[in-house]
Amino acid sequence: MHPPAAPEQVAHGQLLFRSNCSFCHGSDARGGEKGPNLVRDQVVLRDQNGEVITPIVQNGIPSAGMPKFALSAADITDIAAWLHSQPLSDRGEPSRLDILVGDAKAGAAYFNGAGRCTQCHSTTGDLAGIGGRYEPKMIQNLIVSGGGYGMRRRSAGAPPVKQQPVTVTVTFPSGERVQGALDHISAFIIALRDSNGTYRSFARHDSIPKVVVTNPLQWHIDMLPQWRDADIHDLTAYFVTLK
Amino acid sequence: MTRTVALVLLIGSCLTGSSLGAQGLDSATLTRPATNAWPTYAGDYSQRRFSTLNQIDTTNVRHLTLAWVRRLTAGAGGGEGNWFGPPPGPPAITGGVAENPVNAPGSTSGSPRLSGSILQVNGILYLSSPDNAWAIDARDGHVLWHYWWKSRGGTHIGSRGMAMYGDWLYFETPDDYLVSLDAKTGAERWHKEISDFSQQYFSTMAPVVVGNHVLVGTGDDLDAPGFLQSFDPTTGELQWKLYTVPMEKGDAALSTWGSLDAARHGGAQVWMPGSYDPETQLYIFGTGNPVPAYTAALRAPRDTHTNLYTCAVVAVNVNTGKIVWYYQTSPNDTHDWDSTQPPVLVDGTFAGKPRKLVMQAARNGYFFVLDRTTGEHLLTVKYSDAANWAAGLNAKGQPVRNPAKDNTVAGSLVSPDNGGATNWNPPSYSPQTGLFYIVLHEVYTMYYLTNTDPRMLVGLGGSEQVDVGSLGASLIAIDYQTGKLAWKYRLWGGGGGIGLLTTAGGLLFMHDGSGSLVAYGLQGAKPPTPLWHAQIGSVDNAPETYTLDGQQYVLVAGDGAVWAFSLQ
Fold first, then answer.
1. Residues in A touching B200 (Cβ below 8 Å)
2. In CA terms, which of A4, B184, B517, B530 is 20 to 30 Å from B5?
């Protein structure tokens, strides 16, 4: 929308803004005691080079309580340049805040008890040192996802977690059975790679052949409606200590 | 529109020779269920997407076969083609205010995204994709003309379709113009600005023509106010403009906002076509979410700040543009879950009495049934088992937001995901079965708040979302009288954007999420059975059907092509 202005102009604009505008509009222009957020403001968005902002600053908005400022058009254009340089939205940016709020002891108790995690996991086995391998937020996401579902994220790629394949058993009316890693499935086809790595596909019609899909992450999927956020946070706090 | 005006229009159209064989749309077609035409976004004004056609039915649909395919190319077109390939299509008629249009594959070149509706009037199909419009012969897919708008930019996510009035067409551009074309030639008649491009509006809606009103919406992902406008079909002059958030001191809904400044930047975008009830002359549509989307701290510091009219089903008098009633499906939403989904008009029984109803399956995972003449609330049901963000319903039947399931610094596990239990994809209601059909998505996401200063959140900023699992995608059937699901039919493919069509032949047509167009036999309270399918790779819009030359066709678009099927 607004091509970048010269750095000196932007810097000068910021100084002017701090001195004249920040009391009402906030030092970051995102709203203060009396003045609204200017970063998302309609006038500021429409303005290209100070032409819309200048008369407003020089005349004020008496009905809204904004006084007039005896600033030159050149100065106001610099202020406009600084306003236009402010980031509008950090949509898609990852959080850099500290997410750890849980109780590691409670997490350990949950892991060994009510969570029934020890059915598949061990802190001296597959989870050994997990606190040193991933950031806390990644650990937390992995606890819920089990590493599956591609961990689609709005701003970054999938985590470096090796995933066990979904497997499928296909049984024909003859009794013949084929097993393998699932390639793709619909109501009309089942495709897999067998133990030799050979691709095989079969047409499906209702329950012929019989198809049973086994997802190693099924427990994680079944847990999705059951989780309490507090238990997730506690488990994360516990896993972070496993260095 | 009054009866007198309707009569004048009818007489007028007779005098100009609009009759059998002529190309223009007879406005009376819009007031009947669609049979030999598909004259508006949803086929008819009710948006139930149920066809009374039954030539194709459960006994013969297995003989459905491909009649023709037409692959389309976006952009200026023309060119010489190559020695081995088919001849290129006609060069596009060009319009647009941009000297050098922003490069946008699917708009300036390449395969267009065909996710919108396709009109069929008198044997000609009219369809659009961002910045592009075509007229195609419904008998063989031959392209009559192609119009291309040179865009100054804006979010090019899709074009939901066109509208027609007599011999004139209307569509919206991502850079916020309403463009009217001559349907016979594709020549531009005029273009009018819809919304302010500098505020980052982008326009995708299929306009809806009601009488002499062209209803036009727009959209924005920043902190801008939403509004609906009505334009004159002949001149393009603005007839009325309705803001969907309070814009002035003294506005009745202002008390539901933390400040006037918050309201004026509050969202409630109108980006989906609405339904129309000719008896009451109410145009009924849904509004988008409040903004900033992920924090209510400034726009709604108190519980009474429900942020009207965001996330609401709104009924407007189509002549005056004034709100007659509204029902908010998500007071003070904090997850970007618009309530713009189709409000489906149904004449049916409720609590043993015949009622005039409107029903909406909203993005937030809740299904609502209202009286469409008064807005009286009748029923709410959570149609998504996974939806976990609300602490129950209040006395008005509205879900009560649980702040613990907002975006939080520590992360909250929430369903639905940003895409929602459903989104823009059209549902269908079949009066044959009395069931409301929709594809439900049950994805779970960890929602993280990225900034604790609410002043820093603008538009859709301030949230990191990580999808962590799903209970899958399912075709479901809701009994609107009880709120119970008759069945839940799991789909193997995830896939968004699956739109539905039901027919009097007892069929439901839809993409199965795995690349097939499928005809399911509906069996009332028993789950459906696939009776026919064609693995065409992708279906990007909601299926449509009409008769032409006494033959029933099923029409879909996918992967930049239009596909027509019929019994042969």
1. 1, 45
2. B184
> For position A49, which CATH number holds?
1.10.760.10
- Which amino acid belongs to residue B373? T
In a domain, A2, yes or no: no
pTM for this model (two decimals): 0.93
In a domain, A72, yes or no: yes
Residue A209 tokens, joined: 């052949």
Closest by CA position to A83, among listed A62, A52, A58, A61: A52
Which residue, chain included where needed, has tokens 């392209």?
A: B143
Residues of A in contact with B410 (CB under 8 A): 99-102, 229, 233
Tell me which residue in B221, B468, B514 faces A144 most closely, judged by beta carbons: B468
- Return d(Cα B134, Cα B112) in angstroms, integer: 11
Q: Are A158 and A173 members of one domain?
A: no
- Cβ contact A140–B385 (<8 Å): no
**What is the number of domains present in chain A?**
3
The CA distance from B429 to B409, in Å, is 41
ipTM at complex level = 0.91
For residue A208, the domain's CATH number is 2.30.30
User: pLDDT digits over B297-340, tens only?
Assistant: 999 999 999 999 999 999 999 999 999 999 999 999 999 999 99
Do A158 and A236 lie in a common domain?
yes
| B 249-268 → A contacts, CB under 8 A | 261, 265
**Domain range summary for chain B, segments of one domain joined by +:** 337-496
Q: Hey, what are B85's tokens?
A: 């390939």
Encode pLDDT of B227-263 as tens digits.
999 999 999 999 999 999 999 999 999 999 999 999 9
Question: Measured between beta carbons, which residues in chain B are less than 8 angstroms from residue A26?
Answer: 455
Last residue of a domain, one of A55, A85, A115: A85
Can the peptide bond before residue B403 be classed as cis, meaning omega within 30 degrees of 0? no
Domain that holds residue A39: 7-85
User: Do both A147 and A211 map to the same domain?
Assistant: no
Q: How many CB atoms lie within 10 A of CB A22?
A: 16
Q: Report CA-CA distances (Å) from A80 to A4, A29, A73, B461, B462.
A: 12, 11, 10, 23, 25
The answer to whether the CB of B45 falls within 8 A of the CB of B277 is yes
pLDDT value at position B86? 64
